[in-house]
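Dear all,

This email documents one entry for the complex benchmark we are building for the journal club exercise. For each entry we list the sequence lines for every component of the assembly. Then comes the predicted three-dimensional structure of the complex as a token string, followed by one or two observations. Please use this as the template for your own entries, and keep the labels exactly as they appear.
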Amino acid sequence: MDKRLRNALKGLADPDVEHRRRAMEPFVRATFGIFIRCLYRYLGNEVECEDVLEDVYADIWQDPGHLRNINSEKELLRNVYLYYMRKHLREVYRRINRNSYLSQQDLMNLVAPDLSIPEMMSQAELGQVLRRMLGRLKARERRAIELWMQGMSNRAIANELKTTVGAVKMLEFRTILKLKKMLSDCCRED
Amino acid sequence: MPQTNREIQELLIDYAGALRDGCMPDFLKSLTREEADRIASSAEFWQATEVTRILNSVGFADKAVTPDVGLFISRVNAAIACRLKKARASSPVKRNADRSRGPKPSTQAKTWAEDLL
């Protein structure tokens, strides 16, 4: 963990609320990028990410108890997700679920799931693993995922691959499942 | 008109698209009862969502347009100030002052609001 983050965390341990309030600024500066990328994974929307993160930081200021004895960035992210972010992620969608047929538990699993081993990896590690896995796919599968990650619609991908939209959806689904299997194997090896 | 009675692969791709485009509420609202049941009973769907989130994170999180941290800090400060104000307004100290002539209140469990003061 870098020095800046370690010092910022020390400030949060202060029992005095005013001191803790002052300590929030270096803490936000040190962690904003990490937390917003984590939230983006679940929300995919910058505006909602900021709204949730604002409440997350206020919660941390109010009760920083879960951030004591943190030794690594990974541990910090895990604790912040489990004890502060998850609650707010659930709140974002709870109001929507009144009109949805998804059960409350399924909704929770979809929008604020438990952390799996790959989800605990840092952004750089994930990028590395994903590149390795994409390299092992068939050319057509890799192309479909790469185009999707460039932001193309399924119709555009279908035009590019000279096939139908339905076939593209099936190809992407099968490829994602294949990636999941590779990811599990990779985590087991590590 | 939204497509109804989608197969599991279509649902997964729609979920992935919603996550990528930042419109998850629309996806949730679009689900019919049958589709929700299909999602609930499909192990493949749940396995695939994990990879979808990772793809979303690796592909797009770095490109997300986030505000200047300085501006964001002022929002956090405002949120903290708001909570402090609420805590002070509802703190027992103020209520005790109002009831200064009455009997001494019994000791209560320490709340975080008291802690702030």
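Observations: The longest helix of chain A spans residues 17-43. Chain A has ten helices and no strands.
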